[in-house]
Write a structure and sequence with these properties.
The protein is mainly α and 152 residues long. The protein contains six helices and two strands.
């Protein structure tokens, strides 16, 4: 599953705001931190507001504040505001008798989509923020693993 840019921006913004629900941030502050367009972020924040995940405070000193429950909201709750999360197998040829390869490929891709959706539904914003605090990627090797070449 590949996310649209708006979805990734929404995840950044919601997690940033959920990290400290009492804190209020402007779109510009969030955009600068993540190197994204403040204009695009403002549109995303508007959609997040309609979805009940953020509150907008207008006027001088205004900004955005997290409005949800980080222990109950999942990544899927955010993603589903911006993405169609149904299985994307429309690009494959139609299933018909004698097309075992197409049927097998459709089966595998549909299962991958189901697993992705299940994973996104199982991870709360609170869990993501705990992951951020632990920073398991900090000690991880950044190079891809070397592939062994079999010699004949």
């Amino acid at each position: 599953m590949r996310f649209q840019k708006a979805t990734a921006i929404a995840l950044y913004a919601v997690l940033e705001l959920a990290a400290d629900p009492e804190r209020q941030l402007t779109a510009v502050e969030i955009a600068e931190k993540y190197g994204i367009s403040a204009h695009h972020l403002a549109k995303v924040l508007r959609d997040l507001g309609r979805g009940g995940l953020v509150d907008a405070v207008r006027g001088v000193g205004g900004g955005y504040r997290f409005a949800g429950n980080a222990k109950r909201l999942t990544l899927m709750d955010v993603v589903s505001l911006f993405e169609d999360v149904t299985a994307d197998t429309d690009e494959l040829p139609p299933q018909a008798a004698g097309q075992e390869i197409a049927q097998a490929l459709r089966f595998v891709l549909t299962e991958l989509d189901r697993q992705t959706v299940a994973t996104l539904r199982s991870i709360t914003l609170s869990t993501m923020l705990k992951l951020v605090a632990r920073r398991p990627w900090a000690g991880a090797e950044t190079k891809p693993p070397r592939r062994r070449v079999r010699q004949a």
